[in-house]
Write a structure and sequence with these properties.
Bound molecules: pyridoxal-5'-phosphate
Strand content: 5-15%
Number of strands: 12
Number of helices: 12
Largest sheet: 7 strands, mixed
Helix content: 25-40%
Shape: globular
Distance between the termini: 22 Å
Oligomer: single chain
């Protein structure tokens, strides 16, 4: 099998991630923060080391600003439902995933908040920023947007959008689902108030673990309440991080696996990984572009480093899901067709009717594999 759906989840995982997950069950299978015995303390120490390593990776203000969650979707919901108040207004981009759109839609249907969608203009950051600026009103409390589109990989000018938000006293939340481990994220320098990440994509961790990084000492009300092993006589959740947002027994396999994944990315070098994958995408793009029946979507910005290593296209005579199915059945190549849980993005890109085929390599993708994909796509008409 040739796996080119790494934007959905990276596969395979590095051997050190597999070993870390195994050790979480075999060696560190004791509940941390719940007992004073040596084994429980050892697991707690491992969790703390993971927090430290991840805080360093994202330049978070402290290890306590790193919250472990079940995933990116959960982190985004925690921010939306824990930081917004009745009557608040939110601005999102036209390239958002349903992980952003649906919780906001849910709250707006209940009359709790309102939100607007600012159009992203590919290749024109000034126009994009202007659209966000024009959408700000007196109730705007948050700008929330993706760092890189999960459909076309396009990178939004989020550092500048964060500065725009702050100049109006507005919070900024980054959906880093497709960018954590791909583009640098610096909590202190970039100034983000919240960053939401999955562990299982380009941080190479297992599924079922995610991160919420809290910037600028912002307060988020807990979505879930329960035991934390701290201030147990108090009926309210603790008022300090990470306990405030981490009720219940934590996912130790996920946490240790994620730490190993982050360490793997750090050791390989995020920049090196990015350029290795981008070279494969560029080569594919340059050669496939010659085929008149294929149409590449959103690939109009000529600047360097503005696309995560992803390629999206449509074909003249086949819809994207059928083409992805053909690649799977005839060539054992796994790519994703359809709408990628991002109807807003597909509406904006004009591909809502047929979707796109998305190619997403990882650090483990070889040139031979992308050559096989090239040959397969040249044959399927
Ligand atoms: N945001 C974007 C841009 C995504 O691509 C995804 C998943 O593909 C998510 C959020 C949600 O991530 P998860 O499904 O891991 O919670």
């Amino acid at each position: 099998m040739i796996y080119l759906d790494n934007s959905a989840t990276t596969y395979p995982k590095p051997p050190q991630v597999i070993r870390a997950v195994q050790s979480a069950v075999s060696v560190y299978g004791f509940n941390p923060g719940r007992g004073g015995y040596r084994q429980s303390l050892q697991t707690a120490q491992k969790v703390y080391e993971a927090r430290e390593s991840i805080a360093e990776f994202f330049h978070a203000s402290s290890p306590e600003a790193v919250i472990f969650t079940p995933g990116c979707t959960q982190s985004i919901n925690m921010v939306i439902k824990g930081a917004l108040k009745h009557g608040d207004h939110v601005i999102i981009s036209s390239l958002e995933h349903n992980a952003v759109y649906r919780p906001l839609y849910q709250l707006s249907k209940r009359g709790e908040i309102t939100f607007d969608i600012a159009e992203v203009v590919i290749g024109d950051d000034e126009a994009t920023i202007d659209h966000f600026r024009q959408a700000i009103n007196k109730n705007t409390r948050m700008i929330l947007c993706t760092h890189a589109s999960n459909v076309i990989g396009y990178r939004l000018p989020t550092e500048r959008l964060c500065a725009l938000a702050h100049s109006y006293g507005i919070l900024f939340c980054l959906d880093a689902a497709q960018s954590a481990g791909v583009f640098p994220i610096d909590m202190v320098n970039d100034g983000y108030d919240f960053v939401c990440c999955p562990g299982h994509k380009y941080l190479y961790g297992p599924m079922g673990i995610g991160l919420l990084l809290i910037g600028n000492d912002n307060i988020v009300a807990p979505l879930i309440a329960g035991g934390t092993g701290s201030v147990s006589t108090q009926p309210e959740m603790p008022d300090f991080y990470p306990d405030r947002l981490e009720a219940g027994t934590q996912n130790i396999s996920g946490i240790l696996g994620l730490k190993a994944g982050v360490d793997f990315v750090r050791q390989r070098g995020m920049d090196r990984i990015y350029h290795q994958e981008s070279r494969q995408i560029d080569r594919l793009y340059r050669s496939l572009r010659r085929h008149e029946h294929l149409h590449f979507i959103g690939r109009v910005d000529e600047r360097e480093d503005v696309y995560a290593p992803v390629l999206a296209f449509t074909a003249d005579r086949t819809d994207s899901e059928t083409l992805a199915e053909q690649l799977s059945q005839q060539y054992q190549i796994a790519v994703r067709g359809g709408l990628h849980c991002a109807p807003l993005a597909h509406k904006a890109l004009g591909t809502i009717d047929r979707g796109v085929v998305r190619i997403a390599p990882s650090v483990f993708t070889s040139t031979e594999e992308t050559n096989i994909l090239y040959r397969a796509l040249s044959r399927i008409k």
